[in-house]
Amino acid sequence: MQPCLLLVLALLSAASASPPAPASPEAAAAALALPEDDGDDGDDGDDARCPLASETQALSVPDPLAATTYRYIIVTRCRTFRGAQRVCRRCYRGQLASIHSLRANALLRRRARLCTNRGQVWIGAVTRPAGRTVRCRWADGSRWNYSCWSRGYPLCSGRFCTALCTNNGRWRSVRCRVKLPFICQY
Fold first, then answer.
1. 74-98 residue pLDDT tens
2. 112: closest CA among 154, 63, 170?
3. For the chain, how many structural domains are there in total?
4. Average pLDDT over residues 7-29
5. Is residue 115 part of a domain?
6. Inside any domain, residue 61
7. DSSP letter (8 states) at residue 155
8. Tell me, what CATH number does 91's domain have?
9. Quick count: other Cβ atoms within 10 Å of Cβ 164?
10. Which of 11, 22, 57, 162 is close enough to 125 for a disulfide, judged by CB 3.0 to 4.6 Å?
11. Shortest CA distance to 81 belongs to which of 180, 159, 185?
12. Any alpha helices (H) in the chain, and if so which ranges?
């Protein structure tokens, strides 16, 4: 019986020492797109319903240079970054907002300040360290051509999501599991 026990122990130690199987290219790309939050954002109880009209504020921002109008909805119900992104997709067929101009940033800041009682709201920027710098990207995949970081941000100590400060319009790195109001773009 003792040789069987030794064989089992040897197999167990070999299995735990072996490296994990490589992830698929799709999984690797997804990990770069949005920081993981272990899938539990604490929104399970009310995740099924979309925000009520009383919990939202719509805003349209014309962009004469692009000959288009961007539509936003500010949601006052607090969610984690991932929970907010799910609501934007499911309820508005959009994404967390990407901001590409000083004008849009100022308009969104003013409107968010009027309709939320929080100092920050989620926008769709995510950051991660890249050597001695920080790689910034929009969750919707649009071009990174504008930023409005507060002094000392973005943080380069790990992966972070981004919040717009409703007081001064500056952006800050925030842990993605924090629950904040958010801005969807659709």
1. 999 999 999 999 999 999 999 999 9
2. 170
3. 1
4. 39
5. yes
6. yes
7. -
8. 3.10.100.10
9. 27
10. 162
11. 180
12. 2-17, 25-33, 81-92, 102-115
pTM of the entire predicted model: 0.76
Calpha distance 49→166 (Å, rounded): 26
Domain presence at residue 3:
no
- State which residues form the domain around 101: 54-185
CA 54 to chain CA centroid, Å, is 24
Cα separation, 162 vs 155, whole angstroms? 10
Spatial separation of the C-alpha atoms in residues 114 and 166, rounded to whole Å? 9
And the tokens for 186?
């659709």
Residue 180, SS3 per DSSP: strand
164's CB contacts (< 8 A; 6+ apart) are: 99, 105, 108, 109, 112, 120, 121, 122, 123, 170, 171, 183
| C-alpha radius of gyration, the chain, whole number | 21
For the chain, the first-to-last Cα distance in angstroms comes to: 66
125 occurs within a structural domain = yes
Q: Is the peptide bond before 62 cis (omega within 30 degrees of 0)?
A: no
